[in-house]
Amino acid sequence: MTDTDRVRHRDTKTAFYLFTQQKLPACKPVLTPAWVITIFLFTGFIFIPLGLVTLRASRSVIEIVERYDTECVPEPFRIDKVSYIQDDSIPKNCSLFLKVHKYMKAPIYIYYQLDNYYQNHRRYVKSRSDQQLLNGQKYQATSSCQPVEFNNARPIVPCGLIAWSLFNDTFTFIRERAELKVNRKNIAWKSDRDHKFGKNVYPSNFQNGTLIGGGKLNPRIPLSDQEDLIVWMRTSALPSFRKLYGRIEEDLDADDVVLVQLMNNYNTYSFGGKKKLVLSTSSWLGGKNDFFGLACVFVGSSSLILAIVFMLLHLKFQR
Amino acid sequence: MDSKTPVENLYSVEPALNSSSRRSNFSIPSKASGGNSIREVNFSDLGSKPVRYGSRGADSDTYSTSQKEINDEDARLVHINDPVKTNERFEFAGNSIQTGKYSILTFLPRNLFEQFHRVAYTYFLVIVVLNQLPQLAVFSREASFMPLTFVLLVTAVKDAYEDFRRHRSDRIENNTLASVLVNDQFQQKKWKNIQTINLDGESNLKTRYAKQETLLKIPEKEKVTGLIKCEKPNRNIYGFQANMEVDGKRLSLGPSNIILRGCELKITAWAVGVAVYAGRETKAMLNSSGAPSKRSRLETHMNFEIIFLSLFLIALCTVVSVCAAVWLRRHRDKLDYLPFYRRKHFSGGEEDNYNYYGWGLEIFFTFLMSVIVFQTMIPISLYISMELVRVGQAYFMIGDTQMYDESSQSRFQCRALNINEDLGQIKYVFSDKTGTLTENKMEFQCASIWGKDYSGGKAMSQDQEDGYFVQVDGKVLRPKMKVKTDPELLQFARSGKEMKECGHIHDFFLALAACNTIVPLILDTPDPTVKLIDYQGESPDEQALVYAAAAYGFMLIERTSGHIVIGIQGERQRFSVLGLHEFDSDRKRMSVILGFPDKSVKVFVKGADTSMFSVIDRSLKINVIHTTETHLYSYSSLGLRTLVVGMKELSTSEFEDWHSAYEAASAALMGRTTLLRKVANNIENNLYLLGASGIEDKLQQGVPEAIESLRTAGIKVWVLTGDKQETAISIGYSSKLLTSKMTPIIINSNSKESCRKSLEDAIIMCKKFTTISGTTNNTGRTSRAGLTPVALIIDGTSLVYILDSELEERLFQLSCNCSVVLCCRVAPLQKAGIVALVKNRTLDMTLAIGDGANDVSMIQMADVGVGISGQEGRQAVMASDFAMGQFRFLVPLLLVHGHWNYQRMGYMILYNFYRNAVFVLVSFWYVLFTCFTLTTAISEWSGVLYSVIYTSVPTIVVAVLDKDLSRRTLLKYPQLYGAGHKQECYNKKLFWITMIDAFWQSAVTFFIPLLAYWGSTIDASSIGDLWTLAVVILVNLHLAMDVIRWNWITHAAIWGSIIATFICVIIIDAIPSLIGYWAIFEIAKTRLFWLCLLAIIVAALIPRFVVKVLYQLYTPCDVQIAREAEKFQTQIESGAVEIEMNPILDPPRS
């Protein structure tokens, strides 16, 4: 045993002794008025600027939101929208004019927004088979997909309520007679495309049943390239949600008018859901939402007020 | 013939240890001293052991049973040397013992069975089973089993380890060598002494002897046959009774004829015996079973809050199911085709409802599902955490060097693991005196002989030291311990029998040397010509007396059952012992009948003064009796224990009468003890008073300081002792229990009426003192210090009339107003009665501390029982929850560890409530946004791991290691113990504040992301990950905010947990088959995610921080003040000390 070993041995022994006697060296912070005031001031000075910056970011986002679920039903059918939407013989095309108020810089994100649509309903979120999405018909244990598992005793790919209710309104955008270029690629997560949806899995027996829930899929395109499906199957967290439809890769100038030609196929009328079309730019923080900025300003200013209150208290009741 | 493994049936074969080359003593470590694996041991039959006084108290409780004849159906028959016949009727147990509960095969089923006996585990199981129903499958199968499996695993590992240790000790014990002779090879029996330290902890020798009738049998030569009829195996280690039929004679066998398992054989090299109990039926094994476990006060309160939490859980579930009912009702027409519900199901062309069982059942299922989702609202994991924390706390208590007793080399023992935190809330301490406050090492101080007081004991001079020794075969014998001697008395003692006075002194010391049950042991010294005599015996008083006699030249050299050898002034004299009447608690004296070399026969009697003066012949020398009484009074006022010695000479006819009666009684088969007592009473009368002795029972080290500390801490110390009133009072003064400022009230009454009267007077007197102080009390809170404290001193006789009668209530009223209560001359059951008196009438916690068997009942009665592992055996320790070496360790135990344990446990319970509530409430808020269908955004695996990995370690670490105050501060200001009395760390108010805080924090955690992401493309898994991380960081920082001492382990636990959570979330999100695949990486790319985390944590913690700061800065508690003082090393102003003084005085009882 060398000397250093012995020293180390002794050190561990004393450290262990300190541990068993509960005497480990420790830092014991005590709140003093100075600390308290500093902490509140610090919080205030962090959060107010943060709030202002995020508010600014949120305000810089230009957003056009157009609700179209009622407008796109022709006047005579508005009394019974459900039978209109379920009647295949009636053409569902519809035109909207969107006025751009402010210059919008590309990329401009196209979202469709559904309100009062519970994509987080328990029955709904469970009704899918991730194994089938990846492995196709090879995977048999798809009972979780009920009630959309089989049709005519043949398995449905992709099975489950989520896929069955795929959103199928389509949009084309025309500015001054020229169609705007919309990029519909890369709207889904790359991880989903690569690892969650099979490259060799093709839709089969899909949407062939008595009840048609939504969009159909091209059976010649593998699931990993069906990006609308992939986006749709990332079920939303909240009953009011947006899903990415594509990107307009051209700038829009103020006072431009964009003609949207859409196919109003998707049935939200039966449960009073709203459909909206959203064009939005994005900031470093994301979309337009003032809440976070306001919350930060509120937290920051409360901290400042508390700091002042404690300062006064400290002056008045000095211990 | 040595058998290495235990032989199955040892009955009727004799374990002959018949040559010195073989192992002659079977020292088997009994489980009693075996270590921590046994938690509690219950001595159900020890309550009857009388107050020890003098000697041989232990045996007297057997008399009640020995009167009864053993019925055949209650008896066990052992045919000596005939195994076939013995086992004919019964299958007796083999000698292999098994304390281990499990074998490898039975471990799994049995351990599971035992674990599910606990409510908490059953709750887990029910939840898991519910989750397996297809309609209720909230979690996947694997995830739902996870918490239960984890908990079972942790507990199973713990149990397995404990069992492994038991198996190991079993193996050691079962492989002990023993010589077992099956054939007819035998020997003779001899008397022997055995050491029973492993059994009852009394390391002194006990005399066990063989019956005279069997002594002469030589089994090698003749076949011994016979029948032993003995009791069924029982726990009483001091009692045994049996009959033996040998050669047509019936002999009765008693406790002094049996050697118990675990004993060590001394003096004799070998012994031959008949095994009557073996294996698990031995008394040692029967005594190592468990007792009902106690539940701590804090846990009882906690269970109440858990009931409230259950109600809250039911309320949450009801809200969810009612909302779900309303939603289903309102959408009942749409459900069939609702894209996210779609009740209609088409299978084979038929239409039916899929997974829908009607409105009513759906609501019911929703309710059950919400129970599953919100199950953690009831913090079941808390029970497991508490167990682990208690183990940790026990580890530190055991390892505390300040509670390590150097002299006996004994560590603190934590025998009960459920009540650590009760140590922080003790209000009453009931203490035994002898052996607890005092050392129980007796020292002879003074003697009064023939009316003359000799109390000038000085340290011996060189000349005196050489003075007493005996030469035997050219060897010098000296007593092992030296005693201070009175020179004058020494002079007289040496001068022989010539003077009349010296004759009395001669007889007095002869009585001291002879009238006892001490066994002298001759020890070798480095010098071959000098040997030391060590006196071994059951009573420390007797030891002291024999050493004293030796110091005055009356040296006990040898004792056998038939004679004793005493070296009188250096000359060996042999006396035959014709009879010995052992001490019992009724007579309170013992006597020995000695035959002198000159054929005269004398009886020497020694006993308690009350019992002795009633048998002294008062016609003789009345003035001597009076002066002796005066001396006795002054001795006991000095705190000395007194014994009176008397003698008488027997005439031949008297001796003959006595002898025949004695022989008859000794051989009696029924009621032997009673008969012997009768014989003793007949001979012990008309005695000639020789004198009295005063023995000092020294106070233990640090007792006055400890009592002072406890009193400052607001703990009431009551002393319950079997000693005389004067002795008790003087010990009270020397231990600072009583002070000169106190007004003593003494109650000694002989009837119920006088008891009532004295109690009433005392209450009035007490009221007078309290009203005097009451008037000043109104002026200011601190003026109570001027109150005259009252000390109540009450004796056992009065208590006989008071306890179990309507006077109890008055005694309680009175004693509540007294600052000290001293009960003397109390019997063991009365001790328990006094503890019960307090325990049943208040909510205050009681602690009983004692060392002897007579304290067992009180130790078991009190909320917390502490045993002193001292001289008097292990029974107190076996019955106790905690055991330690010295009384003064009570101060660090209560003031330091108790305070810490209480503070830590209180905080941990509240924190666990909060931690689980936050998580459940976040889930609850989300349910409100999912059509009340109990979808969880937080992945199910995170939900399961939340209380297993994400947040469990820091709670346990903080609850084991955090200290609110340093040991030094706690010992310096015992008032800080008041925190436990005032329930500062856990109370209803704190619970509600915690729950409101949990409500706010969960709302912030949930709604900030909700609103920040409202109407965005966020998916459920991503926001779920955000919530998971937010909650985990939040609860860990919440804990961090409350940590008082940050050492590296705390740092590692808290920050490590947060990092572990990130890692776990990443791992969960890296599994492609799970729904949240890659979500964490997607959301972590966005800046809003990180900003949300920051905002959540700050906004959630601000209210708590503000409240904490306001509380700490503007209404600080004592602990807080002391903590700041500790930090800033400043003096606590007198004001602060006075604030601390307040809680100590009780609010007056209504």
UniProtKB/TrEMBL annotation, chain A:
InterPro entries tied to this protein: CDC50/LEM3_fam
GO cellular component, one term: endoplasmic reticulum
Chief site of localization: membrane
Transmembrane segments: 34-55, 291-313
Subcellular location: Membrane
Top-level taxon of origin: Eukaryota
Record keyword Transferase present: no
Alphabetized UniProt keyword annotations: Membrane, Transmembrane, Transmembrane helix
The family this protein is said to belong to: Belongs to the CDC50/LEM3 family.
Protein name: ALA-interacting subunit
Automatic annotation (TrEMBL), chain B:
Feature: compositional bias, Low complexity: 18-27
Membrane topology recorded in Swiss-Prot or TrEMBL: Multi-pass membrane protein
Transmembrane segments: 304-328, 363-384, 913-938, 944-961, 990-1014, 1026-1046, 1058-1081, 1087-1107
PROSITE patterns: ATPASE_E1_E2 (PS00154)
Active site positions, chain numbering: D432
Catalytic activity, EC: 7.6.2.1
Location(s) in or outside the cell: Membrane
Domain of life: Eukaryota
Positions that bind ATP: D432, K433, T434, E542, F583, K606, R641, T721, G722, D723, R825, K831, N854, D855
Catalytically driven reaction(s): ATP + H2O + phospholipidSide 1 = ADP + phosphate + phospholipidSide 2
Residue numbers binding Mg(2+): D432, T434, D851, D855
One Gene Ontology cellular component: plasma membrane
InterPro entries according to UniProt: ATPase_P-typ_cyto_dom_N, ATPase_P-typ_P_site, ATPase_P-typ_TM_dom_sf, HAD-like_sf, HAD_sf, P-type_ATPase_IV, P-type_ATPase_N, P_typ_ATPase
Span list, region Disordered: 1-42
Domain P-type ATPase N-terminal: 78-142
Cleaved signal peptide residues: none
GO BP of this protein: phospholipid translocation
Keyword terms: ATP-binding, Magnesium, Membrane, Metal-binding, Nucleotide-binding, Translocase, Transmembrane, Transmembrane helix
UniProt xrefs under PANTHER family: PHOSPHOLIPID-TRANSPORTING ATPASE 1, PROBABLE PHOSPHOLIPID-TRANSPORTING ATPASE
The name this protein goes by in its record: Phospholipid-transporting ATPase
Protein's organism: Durio zibethinus
Gene name as annotated: LOC111293749
